[in-house]
Design brief:
Elements (H helix, E strand, L loop, with lengths): L5 E10 L2 E11 L4 E5 L6 H8 L7 E6 L2 E2 L4 H7 E4 L11 H11 L4 H14 L15 H13 L5 E5 L7 H16 L3 E6 L2 H7 L2 E6 L2 E6 L1 H8 L2 E7 L4 H9 L4 E7 L2 E6 L2 H14 L4 E7 L3 H9 L6
Parallel strand pairs: 3-8, 3-9, 6-7, 7-8
Antiparallel strand pairs: 1-2, 1-4, 4-5, 9-10, 11-13, 11-14, 12-13
Helix pairs in contact: 3-4, 4-5, 5-6, 8-11
The protein binds adenosine-5'-triphosphate and magnesium ion.
The site of magnesium ion has 5 residues, from helix 1.
Length: about 325
């Protein structure tokens, strides 16, 4: 008997000929914060919309609390909360009235409704501003009310879709604190983001997703240790790049070297030593260096090493 709260098997979704999600599988123990980290268009929103029961998969199976999602849609929807990327609030009424409206949609009434609205306002740290119309809120405050809406019916799994995009630092912190507090109280959370620092800070495990597939899945520490070589990114003017690439590729401490136009991405575990050797080579070959960047091992370099692309370009 498997007691994981969520089990995903071979999940796929196509929009006409566009295969947005191509066979994703993973399981989630109760109480985990699980990150889906990937660039624009990777398939993050499509995946969590299917997990939350809003979008039907083209193929694959989703099991939540032992129930097959497609066969128990209404029951399973009680267990899950989705905080979408888009704001779904009425601008001309107060935040509190928005929450009362959504609470009624979820079947709450009277004193229980009022109590729950106060609780979720506390969780997102906006109780003192709740009487104001949503249209005067900052983008970050709107996102926090969006989060509050997703919590009204006390879900056991919460799906957060890039909750900090376009959000001011104060709201960003409030969102982090809410997520950490909710998780300490037992909520299982799936958090999509293309900010690797957020995934590193918040998530117990991270699935790196690119072009609709999971290309790596582990704790942030393990991902960085096993796949996160540091990277020296060197751009040179032109002419001798072939010779520079060839010589760098033969250095014993260098892993792969990826070239794009006039830029070389040099993978290594020993960035300081290799940096000196690289500069000796460019000097000896009279190459003109136009930019030089050293990136320490992080989820960003894990992604770069696996795909040759940056998470954000
Ligand atoms: N309703 C839709 N109709 C057609 N294609 C879609 C639809 N929604 C998403 N797509 C396509 O599916 C792919 C995955 O999109 P998705 O929104 O899931 O990515 P994402 O990882 O959430 O990206 P972002 O970081 O930009 O939010 C993209 O190629 C996108 O253009
Ligand atoms: Mg998205």
């Amino acid at each position: 008997m498997n007691d994981d709260i969520l089990i995903v098997k071979n999940l796929a979704k196509s929009y006409r000929e566009n295969q947005a999600v191509r066979g994703i599988s993973f399981s989630l123990p109760r109480g985990e914060i699980f990150g889906l980290l990937g660039p624009n268009g990777a398939g993050k929103s499509t995946t969590i919309s299917m997990l939350a029961g809003l979008l039907s998969p083209t193929s694959g199976q989703i099991t939540i609390k032992g129930l097959d999602l497609s066969e128990n849609l209404l029951k399973v929807k009680q267990y899950v909360g989705l905080v979408p990327q888009e704001i779904a609030l009425y601008p001309t009424i107060s935040a509190r009235d928005n929450l009362i409206f959504w609470g009624q949609v979820y079947g709450l009434h009277g004193a229980a409704l009022k109590r729950r609205v106060d609780e979720v306002l506390d969780i997102v740290q906006l109780a003192d501003r709740a009487h104001e119309r949503v249209e005067v809120y900052s983008g970050g405050m709107k996102r926090r009310i969006n989060l509050a809406v997703g919590l009204l019916h006390r879900p056991e799994i919460l799906f957060l879709d890039e909750p900090t995009v376009g959000v001011d630092p104060q709201s960003r912190n409030a969102i982090f604190e809410s997520v950490e507090k909710l998780n300490r109280e037992g909520l299982t959370i799936i958090y999509t983001t293309h900010y690797m620092e957020e995934a590193e800070r918040l998530c117990h495990r991270v699935a790196i997703i690119d072009q609709g597939q999971i290309i790596a899945l582990d704790t942030p520490a393990n991902l960085i240790q096993h796949q996160g070589k540091s990277l020296i990114r060197l751009s040179i003017l032109d002419g001798v790049i072939d010779a520079v690439e060839e010589k760098i590729g033969h250095l014993p401490l260098v892993g792969d070297v990826n070239r794009r136009d006039h830029t070389l991405d040099i993978q290594t575990h020993e960035s300081q030593q290799v940096l000196m050797e690289v500069l000796q080579i460019t000097h000896a070959l009279s190459a003109q260096v136009t930019s030089l960047e050293i990136m320490d091992a992080s989820l960003e370099t894990v992604f770069l090493n696996l795909t040759g692309k940056r998470l954000r370009e």
